[in-house]
Amino acid sequence: GIYCCLLLFWSLVVCFLLLFFLKCPSRHLNKMESGADDGCKDDAVVTRQPVGGGINVIRWCNRACPAVVAALVIVVGLVRGMSTYSGLRYFVVRTLFPSYRNDTIRFLSPSEDVMSNLPEDSVRLIDPSNESTILSFRMYKAVRHSCVMGAFARAGMVETKKPDWNIIWGTRIDDESYAALSQYQKVNHFPGTWHIGRKDAMLRSLLKLKRLVGSSEISFLPLSYNLPHDLSLLLNEIDSSENAIFIAKPPASSRGRGIYLLNSSEEAQSCDTPCIVQKYISDPYLINSRKFDLRVYAVVTSFNPLRIYVFKEGLVRFATEEYTTDLSSLGNQFVHLTNYGVNKKSKKFRKNMGDESCTSSSKWTLSTLRRYLEEQNGVRWEVIWDQVRHIIASTILSCEDAVCSKVAQVVKHRSNCFELYGFDILLDSRLKAYLLEVNIMPALGCGSPLDKTLKSNLVAAILQLVGVEAYNRKDYRKEESTRKKNKILGLGTRSNSTGSKKHSGKTPSTKSAQSQQTINFQNLSSDSIELDILREVEDECHRMGDFEKIYPTPLACKRYEQYFQTKKYYNTLLSEWEYLKAGFTSSERAQSMQWLRGNDAFPSKVTPDPVFRKPTFHRPRPVATRVIRELPAATPTYMLCLADEMSSSHFSQVLPASRASLVPSQGRPRPIHTSRVVRGVPTASLPK
């Protein structure tokens, strides 16, 4: 109603200005036509020019130009008014725990019908005169993709450059900006996620995890070398493998830039810049004689406690030329690379116009691939999807400890950050999945109707999952000031003036779970941080939409228990909670929700489901944590040492293990520690 009145008012102003400028006489034109020039100082007679068509055009332009300029100014004002006053109304997702948590903003996809699907009590109004309550976002050094801007616009948010935004979207911010965040602000990056975003760092993280849990659990990682450090190992592998093909990738590049294939020692030695070289998967699964890979989207909403979700839909990207392993085709990127940035330059690239049933285009959705494999080849999609889930969980767990340490240093509130990952996965001829790379800023450009539909739904689902809250910025600043003063004076904090029901949300410490063997849920108080985390997790599950939870689930907690380098208390809290929920009956489940709302007691005599054992807190013994190499028989035992720089997976393929001896790859020998455990080395053969 307010905006309609404003629109009517400005329309009347525009009409009045047009009539005024077109009807009023122009004194300047009359003088010009009569030849009387006020600036002329002599009395020369000026001949009167006949009024013709040219003069009429000039007269009309001079009279109409001010009106046109005024109309343009008014139109710009109307457009700015539309963007400013679009925040008058927004929609929310109701929380499951209204006494303890706030409602969150609902982000709509383009296909959602607002008026018919949403309940009336989900509508919220904002006073436009109070800038402290207007929903706002900030784009930070990011491309303004239509799927991102459209998601914010449909949610009633306006763009701002002020520091009191609700959510920021863009590249990584600095550590000082993380420390200055309020508990209601959201950032689309965690600090330290480059541990899997860079190819060289991801290789180190996965090899470290491989030494901890065993090579069979990380079999999705192709044989990889970090040049120039592993150049000698790569040369040994090339010499021992006949007609083997390798692929070289820059450590911090994207969209297929700088990638090339090699198959000789000379080409490997010519690599003068740091790069990652992987053994090329020469037998990929082919559709229509073309190679393809999967782009799967995963979201992490918290690292402590860890929570991972995967989007149910994704992209299938095809190469544009038929696949062949002929050595003459190694330089043809349209045969061996599936990146969209590469293949869109090919003349054979076919854009998908949004028809999911089209199987002749160069880009599909995951649902189209699933139907094709199940109908044409009788493939069980769940087998492939289980491998995808395992790759995502294992890769994120490989950097979990490093990211948690960084977050604890620079982030004050546990719910400030979230991260979108793009996993590139390749299937071989036996439908075994391999991880190619991880993108911490996956491309969100909409080059086709298929891209626009999928990525618009993805961004809206992400923003709704992470739970963006509306709050009064002015009241929050007053509350923070009061809290700091009371902390200095040693007084208790006052009640929330912002109307927030949210816990203070401080970033959990990385304390070990070994300090507490069990968690007694019955003894937890209603305002404890443990119950606030459980409520936060249940609210996230309520907002999942098109996402699927990978971790924590009962099966995942049991499977990945040994993947954590450090056992953390809040991960154990969620593991115990998932085990309990697996054993709940429907009535116990309802009672547990009432307990979280503060309306009932914890279900009595509840035991975990017998299928899932309780998590143990004993650190697993490291498996093959060091490298075994060959030494001469005359080498004294005190020269035995451990090597941190190399992976045992390399030596298991190129070096014999007849003698148990250890040397470093570079530098001076280091004394062996008898407390270390080395696979395949008899205890009697180690020095005492």
Mean pLDDT: 78
Largest sheet: 8 strands, antiparallel
% residues in beta strands: 5-15%
Q: Poorly predicted ranges (pLDDT <50, ≥5 residues)?
A: 25-52, 83-87, 493-499, 610-688
The helix content is: 25-40%
Briefly, what is this?
Helix content is 37%, strand content 13%.
Any overview of this molecule?
It is a single chain. By secondary structure, the chain is an alpha+beta fold. A hairpin with a 5-residue loop joins strand 17 and strand 18 (433-439). The longest helix is centred in the N-terminal third of the chain and has 33 residues, at 53-85. It is globular, with a radius of gyration of 32 Å. The model is unreliable at 25-52, 83-87, 493-499 and 610-688 (pLDDT under 50).
Topology of this structure?
Elements: H1 2-23, H2 27-34, H3 53-85, E1 89-93, E2 104-105, H4 114-117, E3 123-125, E4 136-140, H5 146-154, E5 158-159, E6 167-170, H6 175-179, E7 186-187, H7 194-197, H8 199-213, E8 224-227, H9 231-240, E9 246-249, E10 260-262, H10 265-269, E11 275-279, E12 286-287, E13 290-303, E14 306-311, E15 315-318, H11 333-336, H12 340-343, E16 363-365, H13 366-377, H14 381-398, H15 400-410, E17 419-427, E18 433-439, H16 449-466, H17 473-489, H18 529-542, E19 547-551, H19 554-559, H20 569-583, H21 586-597, H22 648-654
Helix pairs in contact: 1-3, 5-16, 8-14, 9-22
Essential attributes:
688 residues, disordered C terminus, four-stranded parallel β-sheet, alpha+beta, globular, 19 strands
